[in-house]
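Hey, I'm writing a tutorial for new members on how sequence and structure tokens pair up, and I'd like a real worked example in the thread rather than a made-up one. If someone can provide the structure for the chain below, I'll link this post from the tutorial.
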Amino acid sequence: ENAFVSDGTLKIRAHREWYGGRRFTSAKLESRADWLYGKFHVRARLQKGTARGTWAANWMMPRESTYGRWPRSGEIDIMEHVGYDTGKIHGTVHTQAYHHSIGTQIGGSTRVDVKDWHTYTVEWRPDIMIFACDNRVYQIFRKESDDVSKWPFNQKFYVILNMAVGGNWGGQMGIDDGAFDGEGQIMEVDWVRVEQRKAAECESWCNDDFSGGKNQGRHCMPGDMAHLCGGCSFCGSRSPTPAPSATTPTTPTTTTPTTPTTPTTPTTPT
């Protein structure tokens, strides 16, 4: 009852009901596949999921804790939204050196109407992560060194979707219990897409754009991918067209859908 498909989309529902000694139930879905590098998209909306106490998240965790338990092996938050600050979405990384428990997490935010459909994206490469909403970049995180306390992102991660209730962030301003009655609070997901470039493809950097090209001022800096900047005058590559429909992925890519599991206990992302 907490995760289901209807009218062609996935619904993840948080609902007020007693279960296992807790007041609420929800669901956490994890992909069976995992990936090292790529462009990760989630098209989602919170049409009925912005009540105080909600904590919607599309995020990624490592399959193996190569460098130790959280946060040593890293976490990538593609999108997080808490109900008491409706409309503000966050893209964040957590590592041993940078995490919220010590107030050093590195992330960015932007405002959108979360009740509408949006495509939330992280572009993860060997030395940079770029966070975007509807192809508009709002946060960039760069590899500083080979120190794994700052960059543990050289191992496979899997995708997680969940709608939590409360927690140390979502519950900061309390929980509107009544909003979780009836249909409850729902995160709706149209699709999840993973794109990975073939090794032989051109690496389209924005170096010239940063120093005066036609995309100057559009977040282009050395190492940023051109397709999130509109095009690259350095190597001549053009960005692809806006995000395609779920049935028409860009070429060449490999697209791997997530396969959900549906536990009923509440979950709280870190």
